[in-house]
Amino acid sequence: MMLHAYYLRIPTRGELIEVRAPDPFVPAMDGNWEPQRVTRRLEDTIQELKDKVTQEEQEQQGQEAVGGGAEEEQPRSEAGSAEPEEQRARCQQWLAEWALECLHKAGESCRACPSEPINTTTITTDPDLVLTYSLEEFNLCLSNDVLMGNLEALLDLPLPVEFQEVMKEKVDQVYPSGIPEKQLRRLGQLARRYSGEEISRWSVTSSGTLAALLDPSGGNWNDSQVQQLVSRYLTLDGTLTGPLLQEIGGRRLCHLREEQMEKIPAKAIRTAGQLNISACSQSKKELLYRKAQEAFASLAGTPSLYYCRLQPYLGGAPAEDLKYLANAGVAIDMDIDTFLSLNPEELQLPVVFLSASTKI
User: Fold this and answer.
1) In this structure, is the dihedral angle defined by the CA atoms of residues 64, 68, 70 and 76, taken in order, positive or negative?
2) Better-scored residue on pLDDT, 183 or 19
3) How many angstroms separate the Cα of 255 from the Cα of each of 96, 228, 249?
4) Alpha-carbon distances of 183 from 60, 142, 198, 212, 292, rounded to whole Å
5) Closest Cα partner for 33 from 118, 149, 119, 122?
6) Minimal CA–CA distance to 200: which of 233, 175, 164?
7) Model confidence over 26-85: pLDDT tens digits?
8) pTM summary value
């Protein structure tokens, strides 16, 4: 059995203090929890307890009003008096520290929701109502467990960027030790709100997770974020595949370090399609050309097809390989962009003849 302090109620004379903690024993918070049978709903139980306490307080107040003037309260002994001053001071200090900690960690979340709490029913049946909430109301009225249970539905709403920042903070509150990989796949556009430093701590170990994060439907990443994301994946022994290279794109692929590029298997190049690597340094172009040459080696006997597959990587080709294509005995059309991408130092060698029609 596992217990969780979910609800705290402190009825002080000056103010009623009520505190709730997110319920960790739900599938949205931990995929390992699978409810089998519900005996009593938590919200109903809490409400019953609150109603009972309220009734008792009302009865006590009524009794005090009736017998208030009958007799004076007997003086209590010093030992049996109201709580000792030392205990009272400790309690007041704890309450003050709790309030400061609450405000520090969760900002306005210590305050109560000023309107109707946002729940699953609101999100699924009347999502337009969510759009009427102010930023402060959205923060106070959306609990962490409702957020995690309806994350995708909320991300589908046209919420301003500031609202996404609130959602990001709540996700981080739910997972202070790091977002589980299963939950990373659900972040969608929210993932774009994380810095490169935060991404460097993510647990991205599977190609499925990386593909889900790179999915363009979630919006645009900046180059530094993608570089950090791919670097993290490779650091955790991930393998780049053709579809992943397509998602990353040639321009961002050029931002990887050469030792990271070395980890790209040749078969990934074979299934990556056309990658524009014009932004790569010459050394990176040469590295990718060698991998492409290995990937398409079986096509070397068919020069025209071999050329088509190698074309995006010819900027890294040595002069001797260009000479091979020129002497293949088959007319190969080279467009001007491909010609301009060739390494000028290799073209200076007297081994390749290029006609004005840019055919080799």
Assistant:
1) positive
2) 183
3) 50, 10, 10
4) 49, 19, 15, 11, 35
5) 149
6) 233
7) 665 555 666 666 677 666 777 777 778 778 777 777 776 766 554 444 454 444 455 567
8) 0.62
